[in-house]
Amino acid sequence: MSHRFLYSNMIGASATIAASSAAAGFVGGAVPRVANGPGSVVFSGSYTGDGPEVYTAEIDSGGDVGAATFKWRKASTSGGGWEASGITTALTDIALEAGVNVRFLNGSSSPAFEAGDRWQATATRFRSPARVIDLDPATKWRSIAPPADPEFVAADLGSAQAPDAVILHGHNISSGATVKIQGGPVPQDYSADMDGAASGISIPDTGDLSFGDSATDSPFSVCGWIKMDTASNFAPMSKGSGAAREWHFGLLGDTGTKYELALYDDTGAVRLARMSDTTYAGDAGSWIFIAASYDGGGLSSGIKVYRGALTAAPVELAASDHNAGVYTAMHNQAQPATIGRVFSDDTRADGHAKDVRVYNKVLSLSEIQQIHAGTFTDAANLTGHWPLNEGTGTTAADSSGNGNDGALQSGDSWSTDAPSPVDETVTWAADTMHRYLTTSARSFRYWRLLASGDSGNADGYLEIAELFLGGYFEPAYGYEFGNVLGEEAFEEARETENRADKTILLNRGRTAALPYRHVTAAEKASFLAMFRAVKDTDAERSLPLFAHLDLNDADSVILATLAGPFAPVEEGPDDFAFELELRERIA
């Protein structure tokens, strides 16, 4: 028999959690706090915020509806200030934020409102994606009905971390669904899906993406993730149109299946280019990371092309010149840039793109490998960055800070397909599913739990109470065979400060007492670290942990709290004994 203890959840208070869809909350009725005038206020909407919030609307200029103005704030508004003021009242809904609306009604006399009249309403979302790690049934994540397919809950851990296991507890996912745990170097939410016919994300003309002035060039680099449905003429990025072209990059070249960076001198007939010696038609259907750089020197020897895969770091590709005419420099054309399309012709990408970037410098191989791994943080020379992670709408936002947002075309859509070096299936089990991860290199910042094939869920939605992504330790030896399991009463008599007996209800189930003997100092330290990690001293309580009491019994995974102190007894040199007591927590 072997025990494992999972107590270090990497999805903590600092993690950002998002869901592909979640049931909206609701907005309560307006409660008057100061009402000198006869007018009234109605709050409404489907609240989409992450936690409960109190909204206040206050009249700052009196009069009837249409003349009176108001201001509003939230309980969380910093400094007790106002989010906005001087807003004209209206009989129709006025959007505040997060799905909350407010409208105003005249009363039996005029003026309907006086300055200082104030109303409040509470907005709440019991099933919030931001609280998916909280077991409280009132805050568990719940998707919309019917659920999207596929459906996911994604987490940004803030930094690259390598979990050992995932546990999904308190769910209603049906047995026919496929559940995966995925992790990668870029957000595990969405990618842009281009149909190869009417696709191409258009970015308005900007000098940030031009690197020539007709006389000389300047350095730049371009990179991104692609997954090609058709591995030919796939351009993740180009600048210019028709004869007024500047540069293009992608799987292009003389056969349409070689990776190439090409620069143009104010015409399609004069170019400076390097393309890979190898054809890559076999890259179809897989996520590939590609990059290229140009040193600005006006020679093809200054162009380099790179390629990597999900689990293979980028390397420089052997390449040859693909020049034409006598090249001097690129021209700064008044033409848009495009993701997924070459200039103004019909060479359009068929497949996915993700995390496309442009830098106004030459990226080194080491820097390209860091971008591939998701560890590169130098944004000083980043002139354009399109994560392609919106998942909704027609805007592809530029996160570089330069404001070069792109616009999706009719052939573009959002997909939940993302580059995930960790992609492991979680075996279905009722109530609690778990998987010990086997991918050897799995240190990533972005993770998600993906469920597909469950759109016909009988409940009409997917629900998760607890998502645990973290590390474990397993004692190598020293524990006695067998576990002592007993039933714990749900009521217990406690003595109050005035020595009166009081019956309290306990959120506990089975008690598991695990005797350990002949434990080394190192293992004693591991158990002590567990005790320290799950003690919330500020709240004076023990945080939950998962214990796998028998690795051969899937049902022995329990959500538990520590039931007693950690008091090892030294039996000899580097030799300790103690009894670990766990109390199972009821969902």
Could you walk me through the main structural features you see in this protein, from its secondary elements to its overall organization?
- A hairpin with a 5-residue loop joins strand 20 and strand 21.
- The protein is mainly β.
- It has two helices and 46 strands.
- Strands 1, 12, 14, 34, 36, 37, 40, 43, 44, 45 and 46 form an eleven-stranded antiparallel beta sheet that branches.
Structure described in brief:
This protein is mainly beta. Helices cover 4% and strands 44% of the residues.
Shape: flat
Gap between N and C termini = 26 Å
Determine Rg (CA atoms, Å). 30 Å
Mean pLDDT across every amino acid position: 90
> Based on helices, strands and strand pairing, what is the structural class?
mainly beta
- Count of helical stretches: 2
**Biggest sheet, open or closed, and with what strands and sense?**
11 strands, antiparallel
Low-confidence stretches: none
**Count of DSSP strands:** 46
Q: Give the proportion of residues in helices.
A: under 10%
Amount of beta strand: 35-45%
